[in-house]
């Protein structure tokens, strides 16, 4: 190949032209394209076939579900019998935690009349404060105790009892998810064959909307709190499995060789060497499990799980914004407390216990024992030690309702102007443009981008994801989802990248921005619907603003991380060569941080897809509406197929953006 041809083959502009050419040609020819080239045809099985897409994926999936429900293996049991047995097995630990936290024990140990009250509110708040003190000092003690004290003080509408029901479910689902994720991660780390099976499975699981498998859980496990716990476990274990695999694979060879030289057996190597060495990743997995369980608090209420989520969902359906805010704040406080506790556990290093009296060696345990004794001793003199006095409880719902009325009365015109202007000038044009694009043009564009970034393998993988959406019959709905995600991700990039650029320069602003991201990430997703519904009512505008608020977190975090982790010697070389601070930022830091920013954009897109499905609750007309419809009619096949369409959108973007980031990381100064 000549020098001119080699230069042309590696020229970014020439590569972009090759990528865009088929897409542009199909756009130009759209008025003359046949209908089947613009929108995927309904069926390849004949004009009268009554199916949604090219292939009857929903019918096939429902047939598999019916087979699993009805077919008796070995003439003895069905798959549904197995799942119902698992559901029954969840009942015992769930009953125990519910009795411990809010019901109390009747006829304890089979002794008639022997009753034990649930954990008193004062003991709960005190133990949270003591635990926080032992982990990180008085600040975490004040935060933990204060968060749980809120649940008791603002319990005029029963928030304490609902919170205890929620914590009872989390106390069962989080350990189960951790055990399953840890076991799966260890198996994948020990076997490349298992890893090749598990890794794609985890990718699909983390891309699949919650509501898709809620239907499957309801069909096979029933409804109620037990089914909610199982759905939460299914949703929460993939991050733990992924982080376990990454942590065990990232252990240095020196540590492994030291364990071998010490004569460790395989079991000793795992439990005495590898798992302790991977402790940071494993504790991060524990933190993610807790946050994922709290994210399911409201969603699991759709299949009957009791607690704060069910109450919040009921009030949202009635548009009782003030009461919903009050319950939502309780969910947020629980999330903040558990998140800070899990982060403190992850960062706390093991320490040697010094000698001396027991109150010096075990001050936390001694303080807890004294608190337990004091609470139960005082319970003989006053009932207030066991239950917070009802006449002292307060409610903030009146305040929030008054705020809603004030906003809607005094800011009706400017808010309406913003809502209508954004809808008419931005959302509708983008929606019309995205839905106007022929499906063959989208396929050509995705294939060419995949081929350019990673060769034929990546191109075929991305093409397979897009083709699944095309043959499923939900192409138009998928394009509506894509339009909402596209607008949201662009807005997040326009907000998050400048915020990250501003925050990275000083330690104080970096700490402030990261703390804000941490706090916002602890909020359960449904919480973001409350302010936007209050301001903009229901519809696409409210959904877009909720998505933007939720999805700005990762792009901001990754921008800060990328800019602050540019090698210092490169920055010093740029300053020595005479670069101004602006030139150093745009000519040195930003190009080197671009791979991390791309990964942040990838996570932003995943957050946006997740929130789009939640936003369907307030009236959008995309794939989320189809999932809610499937949930209403208990259509497991439709819910799973539509959920896989959402997952395919996320997986397509994920594989392309990750490939682009890796390409830029390998040659940051070269071609894109």
Question: Largest sheet, described in full?
Answer: 2 strands, antiparallel
Query: By helix and strand content, what is the structural category?
Result: mainly alpha
In terms of per-residue confidence, which ranges show pLDDT below 50 for 5 or more consecutive residues? 4-9, 45-51, 668-672
Count of individual helical segments? 29
The N- and C-terminal alpha carbons lie at a distance of 22 Å
* Beta-strand segment tally: 2
Question: What share of the residues lie within helices?
Answer: over 70%
The order of strands across the largest sheet is 1-2
In short:
The chain is an all-alpha fold. It is built from 29 helices and 2 strands. A hairpin with a 3-residue loop joins strand 1 and strand 2.
Describe the structure in your own words:
The chain is mainly α and 672 residues long. Helices cover 77% and strands 1% of the residues. The chain contains 29 helices and 2 strands. Strands 1-2 form a two-stranded antiparallel sheet. α14 (279-299) crosses α15 (308-317). The radius of gyration is 27 Å and the shape is globular. The two termini are 22 Å apart.
């Amino acid at each position: 190949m000549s020098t001119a041809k080699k230069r042309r083959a590696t020229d970014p502009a020439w590569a972009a032209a090759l990528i865009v050419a088929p897409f542009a040609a199909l756009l130009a020819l759209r008025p003359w394209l046949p209908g089947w080239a613009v929108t995927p045809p309904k069926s390849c099985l004949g004009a009268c076939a009554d199916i949604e897409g090219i292939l009857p994926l929903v019918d096939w999936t429902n047939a598999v579900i019916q087979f699993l429900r009805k077919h008796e293996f070995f003439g003895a049991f069905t798959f549904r019998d197995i799942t119902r047995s698992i559901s029954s097995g969840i009942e015992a630990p769930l009953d125990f935690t519910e009795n411990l936290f809010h019901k109390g024990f009747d006829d304890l140990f089979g002794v008639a009349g022997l009753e034990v009250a649930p954990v008193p509110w004062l003991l709960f708040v005190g133990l949270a404060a003591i635990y926080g003190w032992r982990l990180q000092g008085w600040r975490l003690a004040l935060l933990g105790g204060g968060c749980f004290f809120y649940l008791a003080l603002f319990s005029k509408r029963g928030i304490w009892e609902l919170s205890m029901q929620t914590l009872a479910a989390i106390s069962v689902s989080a350990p189960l998810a951790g055990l399953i994720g840890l076991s799966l991660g260890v198996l994948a780390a020990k076997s490349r064959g298992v890893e090749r099976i598990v890794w794609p499975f985890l990718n699909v699981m983390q891309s699949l909307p919650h509501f898709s498998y809620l239907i499957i859980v309801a069909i096979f496990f029933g409804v109620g709190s037990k089914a909610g716990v199982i759905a939460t476990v299914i949703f929460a274990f993939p991050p733990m499995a992924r982080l376990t695999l990454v942590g065990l694979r990232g252990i240095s060879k020196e540590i492994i060789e030291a364990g071998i030289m010490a004569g460790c057996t395989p079991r000793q190597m795992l439990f005495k060497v590898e798992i302790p060495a991977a402790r940071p990743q494993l504790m991060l997995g524990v933190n993610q499990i807790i946050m994922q369980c709290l994210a399911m608090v409201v969603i699991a209420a759709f299949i009957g799980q009791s607690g704060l989520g069910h109450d919040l969902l009921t009030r949202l359906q009635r548009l009782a914004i003030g009461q919903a805010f009050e319950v939502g704040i309780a969910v947020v406080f629980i999330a903040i407390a558990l998140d800070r506790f899990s982060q403190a556990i992850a960062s706390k290093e093991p320490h040697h216990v010094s000698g001396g009296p027991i109150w010096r060696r075990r001050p936390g345990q001694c303080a807890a024992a004294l608190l337990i004794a004091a609470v139960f001793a005082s319970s003989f003199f006053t009932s207030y030690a066991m239950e917070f006095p009802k006449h002292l409880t307060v409610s903030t719902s009146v305040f929030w309702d008054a705020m809603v009325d004030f906003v809607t009365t005094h800011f009706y015109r400017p808010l309406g102007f913003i809502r209508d202007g954004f809808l008419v000038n931005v959302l509708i044009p983008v929606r019309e443009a995205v839905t106007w694009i022929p499906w063959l043009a989208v396929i050509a564009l995705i294939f060419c981008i995949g081929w350019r970034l990673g060769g034929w393998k990546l191109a075929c993988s991305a093409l397979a994801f897009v083709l699944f959406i095309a043959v499923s019959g939900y192409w138009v709905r998928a394009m509506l989802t894509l339009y909402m995600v596209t607008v949201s991700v662009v807005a997040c990039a326009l907000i998050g990248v400048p915020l990250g650029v501003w925050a990275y320069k000083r330690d104080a602003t970096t700490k402030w921005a990261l703390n804000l991201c941490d706090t916002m990430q602890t909020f359960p997703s449904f919480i973001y619907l409350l302010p936007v519904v209050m301001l903009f009512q229901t519809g696409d505008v409210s959904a877009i603003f909720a998505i933007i608020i939720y999805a700005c977190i990762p792009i901001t975090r990754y921008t800060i991380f990328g800019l602050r982790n540019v090698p210092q010697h490169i920055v010093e070389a740029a300053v020595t060569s005479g670069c101004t601070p602006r030139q150093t930022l745009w000519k040195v830091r930003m190009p080197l941080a671009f791979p991390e920013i791309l990964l942040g954009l990838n996570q932003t897109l995943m957050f946006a897809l997740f929130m789009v499905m939640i936003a369907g609750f307030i009236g959008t007309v995309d794939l989320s509406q189809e999932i809610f419809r499937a949930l209403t009619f208990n259509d497991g096949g439709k819910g799973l197929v539509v959920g896989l369409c959402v997952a395919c959108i996320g997986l397509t973007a994920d594989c392309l953006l990750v490939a682009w980031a890796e390409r830029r990381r390998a040659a940051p100064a070269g071609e894109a």
